Amino acid sequence: MRLSTVILPVHRWSEGGREVWQRAEELGFHTAYTYDHLSWRSFRDGPWFGAVPTLTAAAAATSRLRLGTLVTSPNFRHPVTLAKELISLDDISDGRITLGIGAGGSGFDATALGQEPWTPRERADHFGEFVPLLDRLLTQDVVSYDGVHYRAHEVRNIPGCVQRPRLPFAIAATGPRGMRLAAGHGQAWVTTGDPKVSANGTAAESLEAVRGQVERLGKTCAEAGRDAGELDRIMLTGFTPDRPLASVDAFVDFAGAHAEAGIDEIVLHWPIADSVFEADLAVFEKIAAEGAAQLGR
To answer: For FRET with 10, which of 208, 230, 242, 274 sits at 20 to 30 Å CA-CA?
Structure first.
């Protein structure tokens, strides 16, 4: 079981931002991710910085910590420009970047460029074209492509990623189309649980839903001729009925149960006061120091 964190890009770099990322490395987290949004829910009217510049600064301020997004989406990203930024970021970090990527939702990003929000089917259609094209852009020196939603004309991406054949994709998916993308292009799969269960269900029901998702991922991989064991299975916490940050014991119980369900990486939100991610920082750090050790990290 690996323990990671997600640090929302709400901190000015000169006012504690650098220190948070460095502290994540000191605490021994496997990866520190950040959200890749233009703004997000209750944070919309407060400080919110760009994911790629933030990760670039974090790469310069750390040396061992893996870094990444949870998650990037096609809502405001184009695979051609994103690929160039990712190759640069992978180079600056000396190969420590993971791209968490998903189909996106109907939040602020969906309309920020003046467009109408896509339907779930349209999001899936864009995602289904976005991921394979991005894969090509990160692995081939020259790419041309003429698709339904995206085009690329003799795009050069030299010298490519430090990580070969490219930086890893952690694909967030719960539906069949997304899981097929994870099976075909992912090095990891990401879940936040089942939103329908999380809204009104219990912690036990949520765990069973995650177990079912892991089983469906395994079947999807088998159908694609892929060994499901090749994919890491990541649980982004904070969206289920559980309270893993309540205490070290609560975390150990939560992580142990999810490990048995097939999850091998738990991601905790770095505490943010007066927000939906408010938590006791001392308990959070104790979990990083003691809780992970109890799980044999």
So the answer is: 242
